[in-house]
């Protein structure tokens, strides 16, 4: 009798243990399914929904309490005419996995679906690909827009293969301008419209100036079908065209302007020879006529095409906040009959941006001591100014960090040291130890916030960025009351890998950051 009773008790204990293990196993599976970034649900053989995860609730705006235990096709009647119905039935009938994309109008949602038979039912994963579909539609619209802009543009344009130089496409304006038929163009190379003596220059441009993803601009000579030469401003951008690494080029006829500039160049030849010895923008200002002649520095440094401008033009390019200072210094020197001028100001480039310049000039007076001419050299000092500002900003950050370390770190650190010493006393009661432990935790929290502030102010240090991630991971886990092992299991990664993240011994890729953010139900930016 006693033996049978003991055996009965043992069986009851085993049954309770099995049920406990089963619940724990089910909990783990549920945690894994809930951590998925994909929507997930299961149905049995009668299409009754048996599981519906959190992401599925979000994507379909439907609570699991509203669908679990319900027939899938009664809840989603709108899906019956769509691929969802036919593909799910095919998967069950043929016992095969299915993958497809489909649009669900009631939710204005494109989804990518993977479904496979499992047990006595069907398991379904689905993810939102609406943005990808919209991007693809936008891409097709852009392709159509490109085609229209390209073919109907009044400016000659073409696309050529960067590797071979072969024309891949030309527009009607190019056909009209150069005299070649479109079929002729497509059987030609970009070298075929250049003069033999210009080929080395072309090869240099292709090697040095034409870079993937970069815009380039140059003046070149082109040869028409009838042999006529034209001077063209060629602007190009690298593109991918029908699988080719290609270049889209726009060729603007600038023959008249170039010929006029060549005529003017003869009158300032000496000036250019002298100015080539410097990389600065050299200028010669005829004060009487108000005309300013520049060397090529006005083009190379500031992007302007002409080399002759008026006094009013120069004044319009000086930054409005600097104009009064510059003109007053010039007028003061002229009044005092001083010959040398040195002034810094901001000068506008052709693209609208401003550069910091240092302008040095020499004023020439006539016999009546009237200023008649001014010759100057304008040097671009933008990088020097930028470096000085960066150094100043870095010094300010270092001073702030130094102040934080000397004022804010000492307080909580001193309390931690003092509390640690007190807690080592053997005479402390349990209540006192509990109280001191709370104080120690609070002081450590304060010190952690100070460290975060220091890290925030050191915004360029990649290692500190990793430390912020590590601190956030540790704090988030402790606030949740989770163990490191639990988090590693939920993320489906080895425990040692997660430990390295908490200790900032290795980097975390962005996709994993997304999974971690989803686990803690926070935006990913809070981890970074």
Query: Oligomeric form of this entry?
Result: single chain
How many beta strands in the DSSP annotation? 16
Q: In what range is the share of β-strand residues?
A: 15-25%
In DSSP terms (H or I, runs of 4 or more residues), the helix count works out at 21
Spatial shape: flat
The assigned structural class equals alpha+beta
- As residue ranges, the low-confidence spans are 460-468
Strand adjacency order, main sheet: 13-12-11-16-15-14
pLDDT averaged over residues: 81
Helical residue percent band: 40-55%
Describe the main β-sheet briefly: 6 strands, antiparallel
Tell me the Rg in angstroms. Answer: 37 Å
Q: Which terms summarize this structure?
A:
alpha+beta, 5-stranded antiparallel β-sheet, 6-stranded antiparallel β-sheet, 528 residues, single chain
Describe it.
By secondary structure, the protein is of the alpha+beta class. It is built from 21 helices and 16 strands. It has helices spanning 2-35, 54-60, 64-67, 72-75, 83-94, 130-152, 172-178, 182-186, 199-209, 255-267, 269-275, 297-300, 311-317, 320-335, 382-407, 410-423, 430-457, 462-480, 484-491, 495-502, 510-520, and strands at 39-44, 49-52, 98-104, 109-118, 121-128, 157-161, 167-170, 216-223, 229-241, 244-253, 281-286, 291-294, 308-310, 340-348, 354-365, 371-380. The strands form 3 sheets. The chain has a 6-stranded antiparallel beta sheet with strand order 13-12-11-16-15-14, sandwiched between helices. Strands 2-1-5-4-3 form a 5-stranded antiparallel beta sheet, with helices on both faces. The protein has a 5-stranded antiparallel beta sheet with strand order 7-6-10-9-8.
């Amino acid at each position: 009798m006693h033996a049978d009773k003991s055996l009965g008790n043992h069986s009851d204990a085993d049954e309770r243990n099995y049920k406990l293990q089963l619940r724990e196993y089910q909990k783990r599976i549920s945690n894994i399914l809930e951590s998925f970034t994909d929507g997930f649900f299961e149905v049995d053989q009668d299409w009754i929904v048996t599981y519906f995860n959190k992401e599925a609730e979000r994507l379909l705006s439907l609570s699991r309490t509203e669908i679990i235990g319900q027939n899938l096709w009664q809840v989603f009647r709108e899906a019956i005419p769509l691929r969802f119905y036919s593909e799910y039935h095919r998967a069950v009938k043929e016992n095969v996995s299915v993958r497809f994309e489909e649009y669900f109008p009631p939710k204005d949602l494109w989804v990518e679906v993977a479904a496979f038979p499992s047990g006595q039912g069907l398991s379904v994963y689905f993810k939102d690909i609406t943005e990808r579909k919209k991007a693809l539609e936008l891409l097709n619209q852009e392709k159509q827009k490109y085609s229209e802009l390209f073919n109907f543009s009044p400016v000659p344009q073409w696309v050529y293969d960067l590797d071979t130089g072969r024309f891949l496409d030309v527009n009607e304006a190019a056909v009209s301008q150069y005299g070649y038929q479109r079929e002729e163009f497509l059987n030609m190379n970009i070298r075929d419209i250049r003069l033999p003596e210009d080929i080395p220059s072309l090869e240099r441009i292709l090697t040095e100036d034409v870079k993937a993803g970069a815009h380039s601009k140059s003046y070149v000579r082109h040869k028409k079908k009838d042999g006529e030469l034209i001077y063209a401003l060629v602007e190009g951008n690298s593109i991918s065209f029908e699988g080719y690494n290609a270049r889209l080029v726009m060729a603007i006829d600038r023959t008249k302007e170039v010929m006029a500039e060549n005529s003017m160049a003869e009158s300032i030849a000496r000036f250019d020879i002298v100015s080539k010895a410097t990389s600065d923008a050299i200028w010669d200002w005829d004060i009487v006529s108000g005309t300013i002649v520049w060397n090529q520095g006005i083009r190379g440094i500031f992007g302007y095409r002409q080399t002759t401008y008026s006094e009013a033009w120069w004044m319009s390019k000086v930054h409005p906040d600097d104009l009064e200072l510059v003109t007053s210094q010039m007028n003061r020197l002229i009044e005092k009959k001083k010959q040398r001028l040195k002034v810094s100001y901001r000068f506008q480039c052709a693209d609208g941006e401003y550069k910091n310049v240092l302008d040095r000039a020499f004023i020439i007076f006539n016999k009546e001591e009237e200023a008649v001419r001014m010759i100057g050299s304008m040097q671009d000092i933008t990088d020097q100014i930028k470096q000085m500002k960066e150094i100043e900003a870095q010094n300010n950050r270092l001073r702030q960090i130094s102040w934080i370390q000397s004022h804010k770190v000492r307080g909580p650190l001193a309390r931690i040291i003092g509390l640690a010493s007190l807690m080592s006393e053997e005479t402390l009661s349990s209540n006192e130890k509990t109280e001191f432990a709370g104080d120690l935790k609070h002081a450590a929290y304060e010190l952690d916030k100070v460290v975060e502030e220091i890290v925030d102010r050191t915004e360029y240090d990649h290692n500190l960025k990793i430390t912020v991630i590590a601190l956030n991971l540790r704090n988030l886990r402790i606030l949740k009351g989770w163990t490191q092992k639990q988090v590693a299991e939920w993320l489906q990664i080895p425990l040692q890998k997660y430990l390295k993240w908490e200790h900032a011994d290795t980097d975390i890729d962005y996709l994993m950051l997304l999974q971690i953010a989803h686990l803690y139900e926070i935006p990913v930016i809070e981890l970074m």
